[in-house]
Amino acid sequence: MSNANERPPLPPFTRETAILKVRLAEDGWNTRDAAKVALAYTLDTKWRNRSEFAKNRDEAQAFLTRKWNKELDYRLIKELWAFTENRIAVRYAYEWHDDSGNWFRSYGNENWEFGPDGLMQHRFACINDLPITEAERKFRWPLGRRPDDHPGLSELGL
């Protein structure tokens, strides 16, 4: 029986459930709804994102709010890199523009650790930003969830 506080799929992960967990995280982040996304993390979650550190869910939510207020028209693709029983390594890229219309593709890697309830306890992210032109964009689906038929990172050569 499922617990209302669980966030399936739950560890221990299989290849299939790890891939699903990554896609669900991508879908959540593509909503750009900080309050909703923050619910995927434990109350005492620990994050490192670039030079910023969050020590709980509220700080993670505040970070996400700031992020999506700055990174406009944000579109993200995540891809499973590796997994163990309760850890997942992900590579990702996202495209966005600033309030002056300058476009960027941000590349990164994340290491995630989950509790038995499927909530993320730890998130460590390393990210680099590459300025791109509007014409160089590859993520052109309507804002929101990436369509199932849209290529992933490997298919795009990223």
What does this structure look like?
With 158 residues, the protein is an alpha+beta fold. It has one domain: Nuclear Transport Factor 2, Chain: A (Roll), CATH 3.10.450.50. The protein is 25% helix and 38% strand. The protein is globular, with a radius of gyration of 15 Å. The model has no long low-confidence stretch (mean pLDDT 96).
Summarize the structure.
This protein has 158 residues and is an alpha+beta fold.
CATH fold label: Nuclear Transport Factor 2, Chain: A
State the CATH class: Alpha Beta
Order of helices and strands: HHEEHEEEEH
Contiguous helical run count: 4
Number of domains: 1
Q: Characterize the overall form.
A: globular
Biggest sheet strand order reads: 2-1-6-5-4-3
Radius of gyration: 15 Å
Helix content: 25-40%
| CATH 2nd-level architecture | Roll
- First and last CA, distance: 40 Å
Q: Based on helices, strands and strand pairing, what is the structural class? A: alpha+beta
Q: What portion of residues belong to β-strands?
A: 35-45%
Low-confidence stretches: none
Number of strands: 6
Question: What is the average of the pLDDT values?
Answer: 96
Sheet with the most strands, sense and barrel status: 6 strands, mixed
